[in-house]
Write a structure and sequence with these properties.
6 helices, mainly alpha, single chain
Length: about 130
């Protein structure tokens, strides 16, 4: 019985070897099929988030300074407030520039949470009025 399986295995291996050899034209077609065409990589308009944002670094320094003044002995609040302000700073930067955004930046400098809130409230009211 074992010799029968060895014989069948030898036949299958030989057939696979013969089939894989084939003629050279078939081999060329296989190789051509396996080539992957090159693609152009699209350029990006906005910088990646991993790239250094010098404005953000400066803003973070100013926020930490403000947090130390407002809550000199409450480090948890300082950390939370700075983190929330940086989140909202990122959101404000992503919004399109318009008169409402400009006014929010003028009225509430270095308070990005209020800027974001005021901007969204103004945009909702504007949409209701149209």
């Amino acid at each position: 019985m074992v010799s029968y399986f060895k014989h069948v295995l030898w036949i299958v291996a030989t057939a696979a070897l013969l089939l894989s050899c084939g003629d050279t034209e078939t081999q060329k077609k296989k190789l051509d099929f396996q080539k992957v065409p090159s693609r152009e990589v699209p350029t990006r308009e906005k910088p990646l988030e991993t790239e250094v944002d010098n404005d953000r670094i400066e803003i973070e320094k100013q926020l930490k300074e403000q947090a130390r003044k407002d809550w000199p002995n409450d480090f948890v609040t300082q950390e939370y407030w700075v983190s929330k302000q940086l989140e909202d700073y990122k959101i404000m930067r992503s919004l399109p520039n318009n008169a409402i955004k400009a006014q929010a930046e003028i009225d509430f400098p270095l308070d990005f949470s209020t800027q974001k809130y005021w901007y969204h409230e103004q945009m909702q009211a504007k949409n209701r009025m149209e």
